Amino acid sequence: MSDDFQQRGGSPWGTPPGGSNGNGSGRKTTPPDFDKIIREFQEKIKKFLPGGNASGNKPIGLAVLILFLIWLASGLYRVLPDEQGIVLRFGKFVKTTQPGLNYHLPIPFETVQTPKVTKVNRIDVGFRSERDSGFASGGGVADVPQESLMLTGDENIVNIDFSVFWVIKDARKFLFDIQDPEETIKAAAETAMREIVARSQIQPILTEGRAQIEIDTQNIMQDILDLYNSGVQVTQVQTQKADPPDQVIDAFRDVQAARADMERAKNEAEAYANDVIPRARGEGARIMQAAEAYKQKVVAASEGEASRFISIYKEYAKAKEVTQERMYLETMEKVLADIDKVIIEKNAGSGVVPYLPLPELGKPKATN
User: Which residues of 114-130 are buried (b: 16+ CB within 10 A; e: fewer)?
Assistant: First the structure.
């Protein structure tokens, strides 16, 4: 190695004027002198070529220059819109680059990884599809009991299958802070689901409570993954199936059918009660009102008769004969009101007809 090369600190580009050490202090670094670098490489190559002259080494120097330029150009890389660039220097994280054309020091100094940060990934827990198992596609699903069987809060066992959808929100944490991201996400999902199921009764899990279980599981999963600095964002937890274990599913269905019959009979009884009770209450109210009206009527009639009797008695005390005659005539008027009557006057004089046919006189005359 030449003295001039050693004086430049072992770097082909040398130290910039003013003593700048490349850490931001001092004056700005000058661009490398490629002609000088090429000459130095040619001088080095001459030492390893016996009997060669300068003119004979020009093709070799040109080839070395081309290789060197190719090596420099290998540091160009492109980050797609759905990716994030992670630059590593000797395996250690250096920086994050955004989508577009970027540059890093060529291998072996720096390398780059470009994970997709907008792709929605999916992990299935409790089951495996044929797509995941590597078999021919036929739409089949294989159950994984060690993942799907869980104990509920009321000491029942439920067979629950669900899927987790997630994206990368921090590529550096995702690549370097956890050893196996997918296994970590699956373990966090299973832990969160078991915790939520252990708090719940079996009936809501099988029916209307699934939506809330999915939300609670997603929240607990996110807390666990954030605690691990996983760089993962859980977007959705989707329940695929929630049933009793296969060994008892027939008996459970019988219980569910009996419970449904009980609910149906209960609803019918409540409907009948809701129909009969208001009608009975209405009928009772009507009878009470009719009785009250009859009571008021009888009391009023009695009070009226009593008042009438008192008034007649007062008149009778004043004129007994006249009152008796009046009472007799009024009574006869009521008794004989609907009876056909004929009046015969026994003391009639000569020339007077003693017979008066009242019913005949009351009939309407026939018109011609």
Answer: bbebeeeeebbbbbbee
3-state secondary structure of 103: strand
Mean pLDDT in residue range 256-269: 86
pLDDT in tens, 222-236: 999 999 888 889 999
Report the pLDDT value the prediction gives residue 18, as an integer from 0 to 100. Answer: 40
Pick the CATH number of 125-244 from 3.40.640.10, 3.40.50.2000, 3.30.450.20, 3.30.479.30: 3.30.479.30
Share of the chain above pLDDT 70, in %: 71
Q: What element of type H or E holds 87?
A: strand 85-89
Q: What angle do CA 213, 218, 220 make, to 5 degrees?
A: 95
3-state SS assignment for residue 235: strand
Task: State the Cα–Cα distance between residues 129 and 248, nearest whole angstrom.
Answer: 24
The H or E element containing residue 46 is helix 34-47
User: pLDDT tens, 50-98?
Assistant: 454 545 556 776 777 777 777 777 667 777 766 677 777 776 777 777 7
Is residue 297 packed enough to be buried (19+ CB in 10 Å), middle (13-18) or exposed (0-12)? exposed
Q: Residue 12: is the preceding peptide bond cis (ω within 30°)?
A: no
Triad 53, 56, 58: Cα angle to 5° = 115
Q: Cα(100)–Cα(78) distance, rounded to whole angstroms? A: 6
What six digits make up the tokens of 229?
A: 């600095």
Note the pLDDT of residue 222: 92
Dump pLDDT digits (tens) for 114-147: 777 778 889 999 888 765 555 444 556 788 888 8
Question: d(Cα 214, Cα 216) in Å, to the nearest integer?
Answer: 6
User: For 126-227, where are the E strands, in sequence order?
Assistant: 127-129, 141-143, 149-151, 157-168
What does DSSP assign to residue 246? G
User: d(Cα 86, Cα 282) in Å, to the nearest integer?
Assistant: 81
Residues in the chain: 368
304-309 LR contacts (CB < 8 Å, sep 24+)? none
